[in-house]
Amino acid sequence: MAIRHRARRIWSTLRAERRTLRQGSIALLLSTAAAFAAGLFLGSITDTLAELPGLLILIPASVGLRGTIFGAMAARLGTGIHAGTFDVARGRRGVLGQNVEVAIALTFASSIYLAVLAKVVATAFGETSISLWDLLTISVIGATLASAAILFVTIGLAVLSYHRGYDLDTVATPIITAVGDMVAIPALFLATFLVRPDALNAWLGAACLIVAACFTVWSVATGSAVVRRILLESVGIVLIATLLDVLAGTLLEGRLARFELFPGLLILVPPFVSQAGALGGILAARLSSKLQLGVITPRGRPEAPALVDAGLVVAFAVVVFTLIGVLGVAFSDLLGKAHPGAATMIGGTMLAGVIATAIVLVVGYYAAVLTARFGLDPDNHSVPFITSFMDLTGVLCLLFAMSLLGAGTYG
């Protein structure tokens, strides 16, 4: 009887969340379309990936960091809107200005760390890669170009949500991850042209290093206490997130020959990984807001509002992962990209989606709960952690599912 009563409460709450379902579905559909644009672009630059070994290691990490940094920014702004502290007009000292400064500082600092880590991991796994200076130039320039676009979108979403009453926690992460996918890969590709002239490599790399380091130091030295606290709390999660993303890129780099044989599989990677991270971001952002507003408590057993959020994520996942598989086949056939067959593409994507969704629900909930229990801000930790965790896990799920169905991408 108690179980039936609880199920009825959850169902009635889900029906009351129809507006959220509609907003989230639209955001996820738009982000899926944008992520496919990234996948199509990635599938078209296999010659560049082969010419610049190690670039594929950089790509998931650079894309993932945009979601990590700006997804957390959107989550903080969403909490500010819910709590009534969001203000557009207060400049650098306001909630919006502080978060813009944090995002820029983290972009510069993480791009340096990413280049160094990519080189170290490539060497450790015996993968051939371009020089550290090349990686540094591509990482910093590519991140700067992409982050400028994503920052504009994030601010626009926050202001629009503030004035129109949209749920920023639901719409922000899918759109931000999609825009990140759509602009980050072309931005990195454009940055590769700067490393083609050998005489410029070291000079450009050194200039990028100096500019990025100077802005980060300036932000820490002159920023408000809130900015320094967010930066301090973000350091650990960015270090972990970047490592996970680099490992995801290393997995892809090691299977580049297989992707050259089946470019259609490579088209699936950005939309699948971005939507797995987006679903995790939606869950973590909604739970973070509820934890900070006292709607739920950090308990080991999820309460009804948390189960409602899980139900929303499952509903989104069913639609999104089915759509990714179908569109992956359609785009591959339309563009003449070889793939292992429609049944393998669609079935593998759906199987990988089931596995990824189960992981999102468990890891997303307990990441938010454990963060709150340790007295940390869930917006600064659970959202970026789950999105970066799903970058690696999403790649593993997709490779594993495709391998089970005979595509030979795992192991």
Explained architecture:
This protein has 411 residues and is an all-alpha fold. 84% of the residues lie in helices and 0% in strands. It contains 14 helices and no strands. The protein has helices spanning 2-16, 18-44, 46-51, 55-83, 95-124, 132-164, 168-192, 201-222, 225-254, 256-261, 263-293, 304-335, 342-373, 378-404. α5 runs antiparallel to α6 (132-164). The mean pLDDT is 79.
End-to-end separation = 47 Å
Largest sheet: none
Sequence of secondary-structure elements: HHHHHHHHHHHHHH
Helix percent reads: over 70%
Report the strand count.
Answer: 0
Low-confidence stretches: none
Mean of pLDDT: 79
Radius of gyration: 21 Å
Q: What is the helix tally?
A: 14
- Secondary-structure-based class equals mainly alpha
How would you describe the shape?
A: globular
Q: What portion of residues belong to β-strands?
A: under 5%
